[in-house]
Every structure is written in structure tokens, then in C-alpha cells.
Write a structure and sequence with these properties.
The complex is a heterodimer of chains A (78) and B (631).
Chain A: H1 5-12, E1 19-26, E2 31-36, E3 42-46, E4 56-60, E5 63-67, E6 73-77
Antiparallel strand pairs in A: 1-2, 1-4, 2-3, 4-5
Chain B: E1 34-42, E2 45-53, H1 84-149, H2 154-194, H3 196-234, E3 294-295, E4 308-313, E5 317-318, E6 322-329, E7 336-341, H4 345-348, E8 358-363, E9 366-380, E10 383-392, E11 405-408, E12 413-414, H5 415-422, E13 429-432, E14 438-439, E15 445-448, H6 450-459, E16 464-467, E17 473-477, E18 494-497, E19 503-509, E20 516-520, E21 528-532, E22 545-546, H7 553-565, E23 570-578, E24 594-599, E25 602-616, E26 619-629
Parallel strand pairs in B: 3-18, 13-17, 18-24, 20-22
Antiparallel strand pairs in B: 1-2, 4-5, 4-8, 6-7, 6-25, 7-10, 8-9, 9-10, 11-15, 12-14, 16-17, 19-23, 20-21, 23-26, 24-25, 25-26
Classes of the chains: A mainly beta (78), B alpha+beta (631).
Amino acid sequence: MSTNLYKRLKALLPDDPVMTGQVSAVFADGTALVALEGASGLLRVRNPLGTANGVRVYVQGGAVTGTAPAMPYVLIEV
Amino acid sequence: MAAVDLIFNRAFKTGHPVELVFGDDGGGGQVPDKTLAIAARMPGLRVRSLVHVRKDLVAAGRMPGLRCSAVVRYNTDTPRPVVAEVAASAQQAQPVAQGWVTGWQDTDALPAGWVSTAQDAMPMQEQFGVAWQDGQRQGVALQGRFQQARALPGAATQARWQESQGVRKGLQATAQDAAPVRAGWVVRFQESLRDRRRMVEATAQDAMGLQYLITTGAGPSVSLYRGFKGRYQQAMKPPAGKSQTKPPEPEKPGCYEQLVGGPIRLLFCRSWAASADLLFMCCKPVGPEPQPQFVIPLLPVYMQVHHLTAHLLPSLEPVVLNDVSIAAGDDSYCWSLSANGPEHLLDQLAPVGGLPQRLQVGIDGMQFVFAVTSTARSRSFDRRRVAVQGISVTAMLGNPYMPKQAWLSTSVATAQQLAVSALEFSGVDLDWQIPDWQVPAGAWSFQGTPLQAVLRMADSVNAVVRSHRTAAQLIVAPRYPVLPWEWGATVPDVQMPAAVIVTDELRPDPRAEYNAIYVAGGSVGGVLGHVVRSLSARDKLAPQIQDDLITHADAARMRGSWALAASGNKLQHSISMPVLTGGTNPGILNPGQLLEVADTDGTWRGLVRGVSVSASMPRVRQQVTVERIAA
């Protein structure tokens, strides 16, 4: 909880975070199944760009917004 | 005792017995007083007179027609009975005369007695002189220690000198006690004229009291020495290593002392273990524990006199303000001011040349510089006031004072360099307190004011942007200077007892707990950081974070670790406490400080998230919001 009232209000509103994942299945109805990073879940999102299966994509607001690069993986223990 | 003269005034008698009569002085030369009453009858006149005769008689009368002849016969050789009282008084007069003589000898010796009294006082002086010599020797030791330690607090030195002045005061008090003794001598002298015997007894009693007084005077001098000892124990308060009178022995570089041909000491300082390995290690203790920078001591009474100043910069023109409130938090980049004042502030604080005026506000000497952003006048019956709003001068970097620009990195630069370049020519410094990371060319692209650029840069790793209290300086600080699971092992910034808390409010802040998170970068040089809590199952994965500026593992580490640190149940503790300055007191706390409070229900630590100071003279309170971990 923040001391800033505006930020406290903003935290209540739904936000659309950008997530990365890999398309695991493409459906004929224009949606695709995206496996989020680190096996944290599957999302079935709209696929307006017609991204093919196996491509890393950015997902925001229930839609694939573009292809994501293959970024180097770094394991950080804190 | 004076010699007793034996005077034989009888005629020599032959034969026995010879009677010896003491005290009979024969009455020679003494004429008793007699009263002669004369009664005469005279024609037309009656005279009755009483005449005291002492050895001879003088009678004078003038009467007409009277002739009187009187014959007085006094037989001097007539034996008369000696009055016993007289004899007794004569016998007692002898010792009285002796006492008187001895008294006179004492009074003759009075000047000498005074001198002897002074001589008695001399050993007292000597004793005090010894005390003085001790005190001087301590002073010398103090100087020696000062030269060698150089860091003894000045207050202790002054306190020691004050103690030595107290010794002088005790000496004066002894002299004052001696003064009534002298007065007693004077009184005895006057009384000696009235009654000799009583004087003698009184003198002896007074003399006893004199001795007693001197004895008691010596008693307190012993306690003076004791006081010196006690003060010496209080001088042990400075930290160890600074109170040594001689310089400490230099540390031997090695862990062991090699004695040629001598025994080698084996010291086992580790607990038993199952392994048979031989481990040789240095068993020397490490240095003293680091102390917190600010400590509020536990005192029965906290007393602080506050003063509030306000001046315009750079003219230092005084500004009348009351009900000043100054606040800062980790969610705002600046310190903000709100205050009230008289109506003329509307003109005094009006912007000059389209730019807000700078206002310097000092609370107990802690200065803050604000840019006055708003002066709102309000009028009601019999009351006119101006509400002043101000924020740190770093706000001059933002809207509407600076135009928006487009920022694009065309070459490889670090995040700090990109932030500094955004502040170029603005006159605002940057204090970068978080690890720096490299941003490849093209990864940094932003449109906005310079202030927004710095905020965006810090927001990419969720760092905190603060403003300096007085200078035009932006501070990029870590969200968690120390990660919460390392709070217990670090030295807190501020240590204080719960006694300084005036009021507080403890509010639970439930949050989901995560132990792993993915932090993804952008298309240009981004990395995918998998930040996990060490020794955890990594099963509670936080929602993924994506930021284009996560281009290095350091950035991913900061962003991910602070996201994990913010998860889990927290407590929001809002504390109202006085502003204590001087000594080790912290004054107004800063956001981001690690606070340790010895509370009534156990010591806890927390991170200061926000500070709000309200100064309505003569009362100054600061409201501190502390983020704690829910146990």
C-alpha cells in the first residue's frame, strides 16, 4: 500500500501488463494459446497478427501485440 | 597552677601546739562598712539622714540653729567574726584567679591561638592542596589522552573542569565554617568580662566544638576524593579504544606469534565437527560492531525547543509562515510544503519573471528549499490568510516549466549517463545510488520533460526518485536499500526507543507472497531475468514484468528482487514522534532509512517510506510511515 493516494487508486484499477510467452497452439477462430514465461500458465488470447505456432510473442490486454525476441536467460538468486 | 604563697602573720609562738589557720589573713587593712543613723530634734526642722560610712564620714548639713557633735569611734584592733562567705569566696577566689590567669594566658596566647588555628588550617590547606595536585595530575593525564586519542568529547573535558571548580568551592565552604568559630572567640571575650567562671567553662566547650568542626570539615574532603573516582568511572563512557591514556599497541600483523624455540599455542575455537580435516584459522575477534548512524537514547524526559525560520532566496528576506507542513515519500520525487501566512504573502511570494520564488524553510536548523507554486488567499470574517504551496526546486524540470523533448540513445551508454544527459543544462545534479547497467543504442527512447525522463529511467527498475532537501539535485535511490530478508543482519540507520513515539497506528497490509519472478526486457538488447529467492521452491511465480530498459542482469536483479521484496504480508506502521536534534538524534527522518525501534513488545525494524513534518509553533511533530514485515 502506498502513501500516495493517486498511486493507491491506480493500484485498484485493472492494468494491462505486457507479458512474453510462446505460442503453443493456433486456433481457427483467430485465437492462440500462449504459454507464459516460466510455465506460469496458459492464456488463450486473440491473435490478430496471425502469429504462427512456436513463436515468442508479447501479450497485452488479451491479444498478441507482436513478436518478441529470444532474450538471453539469466537466473538471478536473491 | 600558680605558686601559693604561705604567709605567717602571727607572732612567733614557742611550745606546742602550734595552730595553723589557713585563710585567715588577719583582716588587716579591711574596714567593714557601717551604717550610722543620727536622729536629732531641731526646732522647726526635722532631719533624718542615712549616711554610709566607709573608713571616714563626711556629713554636711546646714541648718539654722543647730549644733551637732558626733563622735565616731572605730576600733581597728577589735576581733570581729569573719564572715564565712567571705572566707569561702576568698578560697574560691584563688582557683578563680588561677582560672582567670590561665584564661589570660589563653587570651595572651589568643593571637598565638589564632596563629595556631591558622596552623591547624594549614593541614587542611595541605589536604586540599593535595587534592589540587591530584586534579592537576588528572588534567595532565587528560591532556595526554587528548593528544593520543584526539577524539575525546569536549563535553567530558568541561565536565571534569567543573568538578575541579567544585573542589574549590568546598574549600571556601570550610573557610566559611571557620569564620563562626572566630566569632565564638570574640563572644567569649565579651562574656569573660561578665562572668569569669562561666567564661572558662564556655571557652572549653567552644574549643571542643572547634575541634569537632575541623574534624567534620575533613570528612567531606574524603568524599571529594570519592567523587573524583566516580567521575573517572563516568569517563569510561567513550567508546573503547578512545579512552586509553597511552596509545594502543599496534596490532601484530600475523594471526599467531612465532616464538623461536618456544612453545606454540594451539587454540581450539571451533566446535567439534565430524570431519577430520584440520582447519587453521585466525581466531582473533573482528572489530567492534558498527553502530547506527543515528540513535535516540532512552531518556526520562525529551526536551526540545523548536524554532522555525523562513526566508526568500537569494535575498534572505524573512517570510512569516505558520502551520508549516513538509512531507516527502517514496511515491513522490520531491519534498512538498504547505503553510499558512498573512495576507501580504500574496505579493511577497508572487512569481518573479514567470518563475516561482525560492523559499528556504528551516526547522530546528534543518533547511529545506522549495519553489513556491501556489499562494491561495482566503478571506473570512476578521481573518485573511494565504495558503502557500511549494515543492522542491527539482520540479522546475517538469511541466510546465520545461518543454517536452524526445530522447533517443544513439550509442551504448549506461542508464546513469542517459539520465545525466537528460538533465544537461538544467542546473540539476543527479545522485545515482543504485547499480548502473548498460543500455544498448536504441533501447532508450522516450518523449517528455527532463524530469519525466529521469522518472522513467528509475521506473524501469522500480527505483525511487527523491529530491535533495536544499540543493537542486535528484536522487535515484533503491526501493529497498536492504532487502527485507537481510534487515536483521544489517546495521539500522536510526535506532530509537518506543518512548519517543507519541502516537502510532499499526495497520496490516496483506499482500500475496511470491518467491520467483520473470523480468523481461525489450526487443533491443533485452534480457530475460529469472529472479528467485534463494533456497526457495520457486513455485510462487509473480506476474511477469516487462520493461524495455531491462537490458542487463543487474537491472533485472534490481527490478525482480524489489518486486519479490514487496510481496508478502506487510505492516504499515504510522508513527508520530517529536523532532529531536543534537547529539546522535536524527532530526527529521529521511525516507529510505532503516529504522529500529525497541518497542514494548519487542524490537522490530522497518523501512521509512514517508515522512511528514508538521510545525505549528511551538510544537513540531513528524509523522513517519514505516513498512514492516508481518511476522
